[in-house]
Amino acid sequence: MMRRFLSALASPQVIALVGVLLINWLLFPNFFRITWQDGRLFGSVIDVLNRGAPVAILAIGMVGVIATKGVDLSVGAVMAMAGAVAATMVVAGYPAPVAVAAALTVGLLCGLWNGFLVAVLDIQPIVATLVLMVAGRGIAQLITEGFIVTFNDPLLIFIGTGSFLGLPMAAVIAICLLILVTLLVRRTALGLFIEAVGVNRAAASLAGIRSRMLLFLVYGLSGLCAAIAGIIVAGDIRGADANNAGLWLELDAILAVVIGGTSLLGGRFSVPLAVVGAIIIQAMNTGILVSGFPPEFNLIVKAALIFLVLIIQSPMASRLVPTRLMTREGSK
Amino acid sequence: MSRSLRPLVATAIIFAIAYALAVMQFPSMFSTRVLGNFLTDNAFLGITAVGMTFVILSGGIDLSVGAVIGFTGVLIAVLISWAGWHPLTAFAMALAIAALFGGAMGMAIHYLQVPAFIVTLAGMFLARGGASVITQDSVPVNHEFYKWISEMMIRLPGGGRLSFIGLLMVAVFIIGALVAHRTKFGSYVYALGGNPTSASLMGVPVARTTIGVYMLSSMLAALSGIVFSLYTSAGYPLAAVGVELDAISAVVIGGTLLTGGYGFVLGTFIGVMLLGLVQTYIIFDGSLSSWWTKIVIGALLFLFIVLQRLIFAASTPGEKSS
Q1: What ipTM was predicted for this assembly?
Q2: Which helix (H) or strand (E) element contains residue A16?
Q3: Maximum distance among all alpha carbons in chain B?
Q4: Number of domains chain B is built from
Q5: Does A150 fall in a domain?
Q6: CB pair distance less than 8 Å for B289 and A137
Q7: Domain range holding A139?
Q8: Is residue A167 in some structural domain?
Q9: For chain B, how big is the Rg over CA atoms in Å?
């Protein structure tokens, strides 16, 4: 167990994260300074955790989907829908826990709908989830009737901006989800089943895995995670913005999962490393901001990062350095 | 009637019914004016959708087209307004850059063997970021050439106008259909989308075809950016956000199979017109909000995907795709 933990620390993703943080530190010497104020921690690193949390939560849901050789493009739209549901219900006078539960239910239903299209109707995931990606934002606007619904509910605002044990609530939720999902897939056979479906769904079904059930599960989880992220984002700005909540975050989530070493061809995944990927993205965003570059460079840096990861992961690269990668894959 | 034509016919029938219903409610929608505006308003979407049809026929997807439209618009506006280039030289420059860009994406997809959507996603970030780095503001274009183009149109009886960009879209569709169905490149694209392994065994130049498809898509997106620039007389880095989704929707609604290897360029034309009809109807109605557009497009997308599944499940009995 200890050895596995140490070898995970030596993974390229963690090294990359340390590298990005070091560059940030060189550009901005106060980067690692953390202060204690009003019962919570403040500092750039804490800010990275706080702002990276929504993408990290999306990535936790997305990992399972990508591991089954799928992709969920609808998470951004589901975030907008969940935020819209929570905000309008609170404004309509329902107690906050009911609103949160309703928003989570909406997310779960969206995920199950995607799962239905993929598992039962056999539609390729990229198209199946495209339907909700296009329509979802429209539905969110329908719920908010085109307005930005603002609220003053203390519980929702606490979820978005509060703190627990000094850490921002968003980061705490992300960490809890990470531990929960990691235990779920690695301490049970679920992870193995997901990988089996990702490698070859037909073979997995023949081997007795209920692949249809499993697809419902991973897409449902992805929808649920998207709803959680949507509530956090809505709580953060104290309002539901159907147009902009979660816009393009599905792409960041996919990027985080890919950086985390999960194969887009299915069959190999890591939940913790996907979260590391999300933090790398946010650390870069923050680094670009604090170093005074215009934020537009963000997109270009992200594009360069995708190409870098793709080249490292590609079969061509493994032909160039065959022995090292072989041993890593062998040890998996 | 051949079975393979069914999705195309289904799309055409649905368009005819939808249009008839819209005309019954608003008789003024059946006029040359509205039809002419249909072509003009959807010109940039239609031209992109032709490129997207080729990409999807080859079994891929191109998420970068909206960003390429935005980038082209900004590049042209800056070259004309700030650097003083003639629009035609600026257009040539934009098309050349797009060709290189698409070629690079095609090479990455083929040689690195990674899914097209992640490569074109990187392309999308790159093009959108590049446009924002050039400028963050809307750059207006005031050039004689632009005025000359916008005044070039065919007047139809009944007050309708066929604008230059509308006709350009129709021309792109006709050329696209000829390339897809009558040239060697077209058959290579279909073969590649049907089954890459057997295509390469049959001697299809897979590398050249893949690179060619993405090059074509990016160049058509750049052409579409040029049209968008003529349409709005400005360049803005956030222009045409999400057009890739509309283009993909138009292709799917037009009956092209998303797994590749099957579809018609003409079907995409009907798909684009159907999307245009939804928008025009919502404008005519006035009481419906614009977000209904998204919901209706999503519903149409779902309808056609399910339709495709049913038709293809019926045509290949006994064979179940995984």
Answers
A1: 0.77
A2: helix A12-27
A3: 64
A4: 1
A5: yes
A6: no
A7: 60-247+264-270
A8: yes
A9: 20
Query: Is residue B262 assigned to a domain?
Result: yes
A137 vs B119: CB contact, 8 Å cut-off? no
* B128: closest CA of chain A, how far (Å): 7
DSSP result, B285-314 = H-SS-THHHHHHHHHHHHHHHHHHHHHHHH
Of residues B243, B211, B262, the one with CA closest to residue B8: B262
Q: Is A201 on the interface with B (CB under 8 A)?
A: yes
Q: What is the 3-state secondary structure (H, E, C) of chain A?
A: CHHHHHHHHCCHHHHHHHHHHHHHHHHCHHHHCEEEECCEEEEHHHHHHHHHHHHHHHHHHHHHHHHCCCCCCCHHHHHHHHHHHHHHHHHCCCCHHHHHHHHHHHHHHHHHHHHHHHHHCCCCHHHHHHHHHHHHHHHHHHHHCCCCEECCCHHHHHHHHCEECCEEHHHHHHHHHHHHHHHHHHCCCHHHHHHHHHHCHHHHHHCCCCHHHHHHHHHHHHHHHHHHHHHHHHHHHCEECCCCCCCCHHHHHHHHHHHCCCCCCCCCCCHHHHHHHHHHHHHHHHHHHHCCCCCCHHHHHHHHHHHHHHHHHCHHHHHHCHHHHHHHHHHC
Q: For residue B263, give both structure tokens.
A: 């579809």
Q: What is the dihedral of CA B105, B110, B113, B114, to 10 degrees?
A: 30
Residue listed under structure tokens 């993929």: A118
The CA distance from A70 to A220, in Å, is: 13
B320: in domain: no
Distance (Å) from the C-alpha of residue B294 to the closest C-alpha of chain A? Answer: 5
Q: What CATH number is attached to the domain comprising B72?
A: 1.10.3470
Residue type, A78: V
Contact state of B108 with A310 under an 8 Å Cβ cutoff: yes
- Substitution target in A116, A197, A301, A307 with the highest count of B β-carbons within 10 Å is A307
Chain A contact set for B130 (CB, 8 A): 300
* Residue at A115 is within a domain: yes
Query: For residue A311, which residues of chain B lie inside 8 Å, CB to CB?
Result: 112
Domain residues for the domain of B200 are: 3-26+38-313
List average pLDDT for each run of 10 residues in chain A, which is 332 residues long: 60 80 80 75 82 92 90 91 92 89 95 92 84 86 84 84 83 92 89 85 84 92 95 88 80 87 79 90 83 77 79 67 45 38
Among B133, B248, B291, select the one facing A300 at the smallest CB separation.
B133
Inter-chain CB proximity B126 and A123 less than 8 Å? no
B13 strand-pairing partners:
none
**B294 near A137, Cβ under 8 Å?**
yes
Residue A263 has phi, psi (to 5 degrees) of -75, 135
Whether B322 sits inside 8 A of A121 (CB atoms) is no
> How many structural domains compose chain A?
1
Q: What is the pLDDT along chain B (322 residues), one digit of tens a residue?
A: 566 677 788 888 888 998 898 888 888 888 888 888 888 889 999 999 999 999 999 999 998 999 999 999 999 999 998 888 888 999 999 999 999 999 999 999 998 888 888 888 889 888 988 898 888 888 888 888 888 888 887 877 777 778 888 899 999 999 999 999 899 999 999 999 988 888 888 888 999 999 999 999 999 999 999 999 988 888 888 887 778 888 998 998 888 887 888 888 999 999 999 988 888 888 888 777 777 888 888 888 888 888 777 776 655 544 444 3
Phi and psi, residue A240, nearest 5°: -110, 115
Domain-embedded: residue A76: yes
Q: Is B114 in contact with A310 (Cβ distance < 8 A)?
A: yes
